[in-house]
From TrEMBL:
Binds 1 Mg(2+) ion per trimer. The keyword Metal-binding applies. It comes from Sebaldella termitidis (strain ATCC 33386 / NCTC 11300). Its cofactor is Mg(2+). The active site is at residue 77. Pfam families: PTS_IIA. GO terms for biological process: phosphoenolpyruvate-dependent sugar phosphotransferase system. Mg(2+) binds at residue 80. PROSITE patterns: PTS_EIIA_TYPE_3. The keyword Magnesium applies. This is Phosphotransferase system PTS lactose/cellobiose-specific IIA subunit.
Length: 107
């Protein structure tokens, strides 16, 4: 079965983008003190990121098994988008922790 690399890349971009959007919404909620909502959005971000990672792992497994995986500009973009989303989500988690600490101090 031949892979449709464009569709795979778009799916990867979609899940990474959803993760980033949920992360941003989590940050917005934490900023106003809605920490339960923020945690809920981070959970959704993690779920989307897991879907993106599953796609990426499948591609890596196929290539490791000898199947040729095209590396065109769209796939490079998809990988870049994924890495940016991962970094953003990790930073948001740290920022939420800081908001929680400030909230506890202000009390």
């Amino acid at each position: 079965m031949e892979m449709d690399i464009e569709m795979i890349a778009m799916s990867l971009i979609g899940h990474a983008g959803e993760s980033k959007s949920y992360s941003f919404q989590a940050l917005r909620e934490a900023k106003v003190g809605n920490f339960e909502e923020a945690d809920s959005y981070i959970k959704k971000a993690n779920e989307e990121m897991l879907k993106a990672h599953e796609i990426q792992t499948d591609l890596i497994t196929k290539e490791a098994g000898g199947e040729k995986v095209e590396l065109g500009l769209i796939m490079v973009h998809a990988q870049d988008h994924l890495m940016g989303s991962i970094l953003f989500k990790d930073m948001v988690i740290e920022m939420i922790d800081l908001y929680k600490r400030v909230d506890a101090l202000e009390g």
